[in-house]
Each structure stands twice: as C-alpha cells, then as structure tokens.
Amino acid sequence: MRIFPHFSAEGLSNVYIISDSARNGIIIDPANVDREMLQILEKECTTLTSVLATHSHQAHIAGLGILMKIYNPTVYAFVPSINGIETVQFKDGETKRIGALDITAYHVPGHSMDSLVYAVGSALFTGDTLSSGSIASTGSHVEKELLIKSLEEKIMHMDDNTLIYPGHGPLSKLRTEKMLNQDLLEAESLTLGRAYRVLS
Fold first, then answer.
1. Quick check: pTM over 0.85?
2. What average pLDDT does this structure show over 84-109?
3. Which of 24, 29, 117, 151 has its CA 20 to 30 A from that of 184?
C-alpha cells in the first residue's frame, strides 16, 4: 500500500490517494478535483475504485460529484447517501475488504454525527476528529465530551506508532497526540480532578 497526500485549497483540506498492491485507487475525502490530483491518480493507480468519506461536510466531499462522473467509484460512508449519491455504509467497528485492503471504520461522533475514522494497516485517516495537537471543533460541551469519549474508547488505545492522517494540517503519530495533544490532555486533567474530588 502506498499513500499519496494531496493538499486541497477547498477548505484547506487534505485529500489522500491510496494505491493498493493491485494498483486499485482509493480516495479519502475528495475535497476537490484538480489536475495535480488526477495526475497522481492516473500515474499511481489503474483506476479509482473507491471513495471513503470521513464525514459529509462540504470541505471534504466537494469533489465527489466530479469523481463520480469520471470514474464511477463505490462510495463508503456512515450515512446512506452524500449529496444525493448512494453509499455503502460502514457500521461502527466494521471491517470491509476494499480492493486488496482490509479497512476498519470507527464511528467517532461529536464534530459531526456521521464522523468515521478509517484504519488501514498502521494508518488512521481521522478526518476532522483528531489532528496534530488538537481535536475537532464542536457545537457544544456535550458534543466535545462525546468526541473525546469516542476517541479515548476507540482510538487512543491503538499502537503508539500508528500514523495519523488528518483532514487538516500535518501528519502525526498516536504517541505524539497522547503526549502533546492539548485538548486530550485538558480532558484527562479534568477527569483526574473530578476523580480526586470524589475520593477526597
């Protein structure tokens, strides 16, 4: 498996192109379609077979309609359709064989109710849920607590060397986020503080 990050001016988002051992092409979060992205796809993949959507915010799926006209890939998501395009749904914790890869999806709500994190080998494609040094924005404290709880229960126990491919910003490692992610550290500190007050 080879991963080709591509920066999109649409929402300042990251798009990821995966080429598996059979050169099947998978795109994660097609924020837009530009010449450079198509050149990578045509050079490294036989064709585009699949699109994985981490969530349905426009900054991450604006290019989906164009891709459907050019390649007609299968689209995977948590919800049954995106922008009127029918998807194959992932359930929380479900693994699907896509091309030559086993891909597992984890439902991590909070930023949006349809947010998925995709685990592909030692790589995690986190969309907006987890970025270098921060977690996604949320509309309320309740949603923030839900996001943090979901990350802690489903993601943070994974191998420290797991690579993080976020929807925005630079790549990271799970070890780095455990050590330096301010949002997660603040949440951990608050939890420890509550536990101390209860015990005392």
1. yes
2. 97
3. 29
How many domains are there within the chain?
1
CATH number at residue 163: 3.60.15.10
Of 28 and 59, the one with more pLDDT:
28
Q: Nearest-CA neighbor of 79 among 91, 71, 97, 61?
A: 91
Per-residue pLDDT, 9: 84
pLDDT at position 191, please? Answer: 53
**pLDDT for 138-161, tens place per residue?**
989 999 999 999 999 999 999 999
Largest Cα separation within the chain, whole Å, is: 63
Q: Which residue has the tokens 């597992």?
A: 104
DSSP 33-70: --HHHHHHHHHH-SEEEEEE-S---HHHHTTHHHHHHH
Reduced to 3 states, what is the DSSP secondary structure of residue 140?
coil
Question: Which is it for strands 163-166 and 123-127: parallel, antiparallel or unpaired?
Answer: parallel
Signed CA dihedral, 127, 133, 138, 142: sign only? positive
145 close to 151: Cβ distance less than 8 angstroms: no
Residues 45 and 54: their CA atoms lie apart, in Å, by: 21
Give me the pLDDT at residue 194, please. 44
Count of residues for the chain? 200
The parent domain of residue 69 ranges over: 2-199
